[in-house]
Write a structure and sequence with these properties.
Layout lengths: L3 E12 L8 E11 L3 E5 L6 H8 L7 E6 L2 E2 L5 H11 E5 L10 H11 L5 H14 L15 H13 L5 E5 L5 H13 L3 E6 L1 H4 L5 E6 L2 E7 L1
Length: 225
């Protein structure tokens, strides 16, 4: 059995206003996620998958229940300890790439290495080139992020999320290119990362090892393919 990277136990969370829209809720959700696994969380708009992802990523604290990241029970950590765990253990990719347009691709990807790891320049460059090569965008190293097309920017954002070598990659996106989906699966299989992607079932079901379907804040089904 593969070791657990991330787990939640009896998570309940209600937000009256979520992402500038209506209320969002998660009710009594228990799930676990392992290294080397690409797990997809799907469901209609308002199903609670986005809120659950934020709770799993320690960006929202649940009203009830607990999240465990590796050996750490997040509910027992002080706020600064939780922030440090989130920064070190997770890589995040959201629907908008949020790159700095006047910076090069390499500079954008390297940012977590300075911000989180405090790396020295030589080591940062070597790691940046390694991640760019894994993502197949080493030829864009010196290109300005603002001149890339949307698909390229998403790939650069994924490389940035992997740069500091996190154990867990959380992706929240309703759609993605075939290349990005394949990269997410490769990150799970080849890098032995725990990858959790919340989005549309039609795309994700052809790439994910496991599908969790949600509706009205609850898990309806959870099965491996």
């Amino acid at each position: 059995m593969k070791p657990l990277a991330l787990a939640c136990r009896q998570i309940t969370c209600h937000r009256p206003a979520w992402n500038g829209a209506g209320p969002a809720s998660v009710h009594d959700v228990t799930a676990s996620f392992t290294f080397g696994e690409f797990c997809a969380i799907t469901g209609p708009d308002g199903s609670g998958k986005g809120l659950l992802m934020n709770v799993l990523g320690l960006m929202e604290q649940p009203d009830h229940g607990a999240v465990a990241v590796g050996e750490y029970d997040a509910s027992t950590l002080a706020l600064e300890e939780m922030r440090q765990l989130r920064n070190e253990a997770f890589g995040f990719l959201f629907n908008h790439p949020c790159l700095l347009p006047s910076f090069s691709v390499a500079e954008n990807v390297a940012m977590p290495l300075f911000r989180i790891c405090g790396g020295e320049a030589k080591g940062v460059r070597a790691r940046t080139l390694e991640v760019l090569e894994f993502c197949g965008i080493e030829h864009l190293e010196s290109a300005l992020a603002g001149r890339l097309d949307f698909s390229q920017r998403r790939t650069v954002a994924l490389a940035r999320a992997l740069a500091h070598d996190p154990d867990i990659l959380l992706i929240l996106s309703p759609s993605a290119s075939e290349d990005l989906l394949q990269l997410a699966r490769r990150a799970a299989v080849e890098l032995n990362r725990c990858v959790v992607w919340a989005g549309g079932e039609e795309q994700l079901q052809h790439h994910a090892h496991r599908l969790i379907q949600m509706d009205r804040g609850r898990i309806l089904s959870d099965y491996r393919q």
